[in-house]
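FORM 12-B: Structure-to-Sequence Request
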């Protein structure tokens, strides 16, 4: 089979199910509230970015001291979805996880360095862009995989494993790729990741194991908590660095960020299709979304703490681009479309006009 697959188990709601709640509309049809909320995320992210740039005061009050608690809230929303048995899937079918991990921590950091070099990104932003390519997969990629009707369990496992191992991998990759440009304290960066990522996830896992009644009630509110925390983490760097973003150099940054994410989505899709991997369509869609979407909020926090304020601008721009493109791509796939259909549709329209 070569893929993780979606599964269910008795007892407490599993990781793969997202704690999804269904209600019925007036016609008696089931309405998936989690999916409906997820479909709003690109618009919320775009509205947050527009508000921060047009009215900076709306987010300028969010000081960098608030980033860690906000990011911790996002990670806690992941943690309460986890159970120990969820990780057993990775050991039973490790190949898709391995391919996704290679795409995340080998292909993407090299891609970030190449893009920064090819576009001659200004030194004030270059390290932040490369750092963005070295962080773990975004929790938002799990929502995107859910929307795309891909391998949702694989997406969450990849997000969890890359996030947990980021305490070691991200500082080392950062030191390797940008250590010669900006001094990087590997130990301090690892400790920061431990505080804002690992501890909240472990807390959520413990709650899901020993306080299931509480978790079952809290789970339905966690997507909203994650959404608010994400908005705060996006809006603040955009508002505080508005003058640099709306400058000519800041405008030029949009193209390398867009090129980075577009290339990551493409490479993430085709890497599992190589002859020696031979993964199916669901796995390819999922790894594409997990590769093109990373935890830019974590990159913003690390850039602010260790690289300087201006280096938090690329991760802030990255959050907007990867959320809009990734969730739109997930919705496109979820409607039964394929990327190759775009070319066929374009060709058909051209024939109609000739």
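FORM 12-B RESPONSE
SEQUENCE OUT:
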């Amino acid at each position: 089979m070569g893929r993780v697959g979606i599964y269910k188990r008795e007892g407490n709601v599993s990781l793969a199910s997202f704690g999804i709640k269904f209600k019925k509309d007036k016609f008696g049809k089931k309405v998936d509230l989690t999916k409906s909320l997820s479909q709003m995320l690109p618009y919320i992210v775009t509205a947050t970015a527009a508000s921060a740039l047009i009215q900076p005061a709306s987010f300028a009050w969010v000081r960098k001291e608030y980033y860690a608690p906000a990011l911790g809230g996002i990670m806690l929303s992941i943690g309460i979805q986890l159970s120990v048995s969820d990780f057993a899937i990775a050991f039973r079918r490790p190949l898709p996880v391995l391919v996704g991990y290679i795409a995340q921590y080998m292909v993407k950091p090299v891609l970030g360095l190449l893009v920064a070099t090819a576009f001659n990104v200004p030194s004030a932003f270059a390290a932040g862009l490369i750092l963005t390519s070295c962080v773990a997969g975004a929790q938002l990629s799990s929502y995107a995989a859910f929307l795309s009707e891909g391998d949702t369990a694989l997406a969450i496992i990849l997000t969890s494993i890359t996030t947990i191992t980021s305490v070691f991998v991200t500082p080392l990759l950062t030191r390797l790729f940008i250590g010669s440009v900006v001094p990087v304290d590997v130990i301090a960066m690892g400790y920061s990741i431990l505080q804002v990522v690992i501890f909240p996830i472990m807390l959520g896992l413990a709650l899901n194991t020993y306080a299931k009644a509480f978790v079952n009630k809290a789970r339905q509110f966690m997507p909203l908590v994650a959404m608010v925390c994400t908005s705060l983490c996006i809006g603040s760097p955009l508002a505080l660095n508005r003058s640099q973003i709306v400058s000519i150099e800041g405008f030029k940054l949009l193209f390398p960020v867009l090129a980075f994410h577009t290339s990551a989505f493409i490479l993430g899709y085709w890497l599992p299709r190589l002859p020696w991997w031979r993964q199916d369509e669901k796995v390819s869609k999922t790894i594409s979304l997990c590769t093109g979407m990373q935890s830019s909020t974590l990159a913003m926090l690390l850039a602010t703490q260790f690289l300087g304020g201006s280096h938090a601008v690329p991760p802030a721009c990255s959050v907007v681009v990867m959320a809009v493109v990734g969730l739109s791509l997930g919705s496109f796939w979820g409607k039964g479309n394929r990327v190759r259909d775009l070319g066929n549709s374009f060709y058909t329209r051209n024939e109609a006009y000739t």
